[in-house]
Amino acid sequence: AQTVTQSQPEMSVQEAETVTLSCTYDTSESDYYLFWYKQPPSRQMILVIRQEAYKQQNATENRFSVNFQKAAKSFSLKISDSQLGDAAMYFCAYGSAFQGGSEKLVFGKGTKLTVNP
Amino acid sequence: NAGVMQNPRHLVRRRGQEARLRCSPMKGHSHVYWYRQLPEEGLKFMVYLQKENIIDESGMPKERFSAEFPKEGPSILRIQQVVRGDSAAYFCASSPFGMTTTYEQYFGPGTRLTVT
């Protein structure tokens, strides 16, 4: 079974600074997807960024980028130029790409990010 | 295109009552997933349905919980004889095809169930 671990329950960053959130996962599959979701106080789950395991290039979405290390099974999220609106819970998630495999997403426990003005 | 809709947003039930949570997927989406989020926890998969079929219910408690996704109408997550431990946020997600094809699930705003 796949597992996702987020070892930082809480992180804080100064506005305009850069912060990196860590995520490691465990799987025996070779083809899969990884996601970072943001959950603000409204509780709505918002997709921040996704990475296909077969792609060597790290995904980037504006101020958000990932460092995907497949051999190390590591998938960290970097937020540049942090803004007050980035304050939220961030969840790392794993999804199988294996045909016939489980369709579910496996989530980590989350990292609470605080942005200080 | 309206997003995934869930209702009610908040539901209060007394112990022993039934809770019915509804999920309307995005237009054109025929795959629905239900997740539960306990306080201070990540989301945990419960069940995956396609129209009129339960595909994977490996995350569903064996008793009191059931789910359906009829040919017409929303998906329903039903919890019978609720207990305090059922208090959680329940999220629905949908996708137009299976995960392995589209690799993205679109989430609704969740229903927060409180059992008193």
Short description:
The complex is a heterodimer of chains A (117) and B (116). With 117 residues, chain A is mostly beta strands.
Please indicate the percent range of residues of chain A in DSSP E strands (runs of 2 or more).
over 45%
Strand content of chain B is over 45%
Task: Give a short account of the largest sheet of chain A.
Answer: 6 strands, mixed
**First and last CA, distance of chain B:** 37 Å
Q: How many helical stretches of chain B?
A: 1
Number of strands of chain A: 12
Low-confidence stretches of chain B: none
Global morphology of chain A? globular
- What's the oligomerization state? heterodimer
Order of H and E elements of chain B? EEEEEEEEEHEE
Which geometry of chain B do the CA atoms define? globular
Kindly state the percentage of residues in helix of chain B: under 10%
| Cα-based radius of gyration of chain B, to the nearest Å | 13 Å
Please report the distance between the alpha carbons of the first and last residues of chain A.
41 Å
Report the helical percentage of chain A. Answer: under 10%
Mean pLDDT of chain B: 91
As residue ranges, the low-confidence spans of chain A are none
Secondary structural class of chain A = mainly beta
Biggest interface, which chains? A-B, 28 and 27 residues
Radius of gyration of chain A over all CA atoms, rounded: 14 Å
Q: Can you walk through the features of this model?
A:
The complex is a heterodimer of chains A (117) and B (116). Chain A has 117 residues and is mostly beta strands. Chain A is built from no helices and twelve strands. Chain A has strands at 3-5, 10-14, 19-21, 24-26, 32-39, 46-52, 60-61, 64-69, 74-79, 88-96, 105-107, 111-116. The radius of gyration of chain A is 14 Å and the shape is globular. The termini of chain A are far apart. Chain B is mainly β. Chain B contains one helix and eleven strands; from the N terminus they run βββββββββαββ. Chain B has one helix at residues 99-102; strands at 5-7, 10-13, 19-24, 31-37, 43-50, 53-56, 65-68, 75-79, 88-95, 106-107, 111-115. In chain B, strands 2, 4, 5, 6, 9, 10 and 11 form a seven-stranded mixed beta sheet that branches. In chain B, strands 1-3-8-7 form a four-stranded antiparallel beta sheet, with no helix packed on it. In chain B, β4 and β5 (43-50) form a beta hairpin. The radius of gyration of chain B is 13 Å and the shape is globular. The mean pLDDT of chain B is 91. The chains are: A mainly beta (117), B mainly beta (116). Chains A and B meet through β6, β10 and β11 of A and β4, β5 and β9 of B.
